[in-house]
Amino acid sequence: MKAAVLHRYDETLTAKEFVSFEDVVDPRLENPTDVIVRIGGAGVCRTDLHIVEGIWREKSSVNLPYIMGHENAGWVEELGKGVTGFKKGDPVICHPLVTSGHCLACRRGDDMHAEESVFPGINANGGYAQILLTGARSLIKLPKTLAPKDVAPYTDAGLTAYRAAKKASRHLLPGQYAVIIGAGGLGHIGIQVLKALCAAEIIVLDRAPGALELARGCGAHHVVKADGNEVEAVLSLTGGRGAEAVIDFVGEGDAIAKGLAMTRNAGFYYIVGYGGRIDIPTIDMITSEKTIVGNLVGTYAELVELMALADRGLVDLKTREYPLSAANDALHDLHHGRVPGRAVLVP
After folding, report:
1. Residue 111: its pLDDT value, please?
2. What is the pLDDT of residue 157?
3. What is the pLDDT of residue 253?
4. What pLDDT is attached to residue 96?
5. Terminal CA-to-CA distance of the chain, rounded, Å?
6. Which parts of the sequence belong to the Enoyl reductase (ER) domain (predicted)?
7. Which strands sit side by side in the sheet containing 2-6, from one edge to the other?
8. What are the residue ranges in the chain where pLDDT is below 70?
9. pLDDT for the residue 58
10. What distance in Å separates the CA atoms of residue 210 and residue 180, rounded to the nearest whole number?
11. Measured between alpha carbons, how far is 141 from 126 in angstroms, rounded to an integer?
């Protein structure tokens, strides 16, 4: 099969080619619950750039060369002997984690903390290829309204945004405020999920005028250009007290300090983006009683819920398609901020 293969890290992200488009050996069924999926679309994620940088080399056991791509959807191609409920040709979206189902975390539905798991595209070969090896427990059948290439990024970007927005929606009431920092690939989904799940007023921050325009189209009630005065702007919109919930899809640079400053006392700051550090004096944590919440992708059940919203037209994923052979173009466009929404590789 053809695949876009990572052979070496590039800490500065300055190489002309991050991956090599080449022929590789097809994956094969190894266990009774394995499934081969023919890729219809593979999302290109900022995490892939972090992988290229080498940030994940100590977090995963993968050895180069290997195939990135952890946002995958397609059609069932081949089934292990123990797989039931699916047949060849079924359109599916793949939860990003392949779990055994045996550990306590699995049985509680806490997929992201399973003790026995494989994460294609992170610590095993992923979907920047024509076919993918995954597991039956990861598959969700797609309704006829959704095509694989249109939904692939939901498996990480969408699922991560959904999980954070769902957490926030549980305590947001009408008349309260939610701030979303970053209206890109994750943020534009988070806006729509919040709008679908709660009645809070949504304020969106971004540096790019195009992203703010996208945010308005996704349902933001207020947009604020991140030009250095965004904290003051948010405080003005919220009567000087800040927002009950802040979801930070950036997680680096000055976004963290500003996000915490926008969170009102007893409010919740949800950190999704990464690369920076949270530094807050303990006395401030005590006196403000703010809650800081980490978010790691999401569960199988949450991906099912997100597909239900997409099927009903309540969430729409903005994508730009690239042929698999143009994976480097997609990665460079993402790195330089030229992708509105999400990039998707189509074999």
Report:
1. 87
2. 93
3. 93
4. 95
5. 10
6. 14-345
7. 20-23, 2-6, 66-67
8. none
9. 78
10. 16
11. 19
Q: What is residue 324's three-state secondary structure? A: helix
Residue 9 burial by Cβ neighbours in a 10 Å radius (0-12, 13-18, 19+): middle
Rg (CA), the chain: 20
Question: Are 210 and 184 a contacting pair, CB within 8 Å?
Answer: no
Question: How is the chain split into domains, by residue range?
Answer: 2-156+298-346, 159-294
The alpha carbon of 156 is separated from its chain's Cα centroid by a whole number of angstroms, namely 3
pLDDT of res. 321:
97
Sheet strands (E) in the chain? 2-6, 20-23, 34-44, 66-67, 71-79, 91-94, 98-99, 117-118, 131-135, 139-141, 177-181, 201-206, 222-225, 243-248, 263-271, 291-294, 319-323, 342-346
- State the amino acid at position 189 in one-letter form: I
- Host H or E run for residue 283: helix 282-288
Q: Which CATH class is domain 2-156+298-346?
A: alpha beta
Q: Which pLDDT score, from 0 to 100, does residue 290 have?
A: 97
Q: What are 223's strand-pairing partners?
A: 204
Look up residue 311 and give its DSSP letter: H
Q: Copy the structure tokens of residue 217.
A: 């189209």
**Beta pairing class for 34-44 and 2-6:** unpaired
247 vs 256: CA distance, rounded Å: 10
Task: For domain 159-294, give its CATH number from 3.30.70.240, 3.10.180.10, 3.40.190.10, 3.40.50.720.
Answer: 3.40.50.720
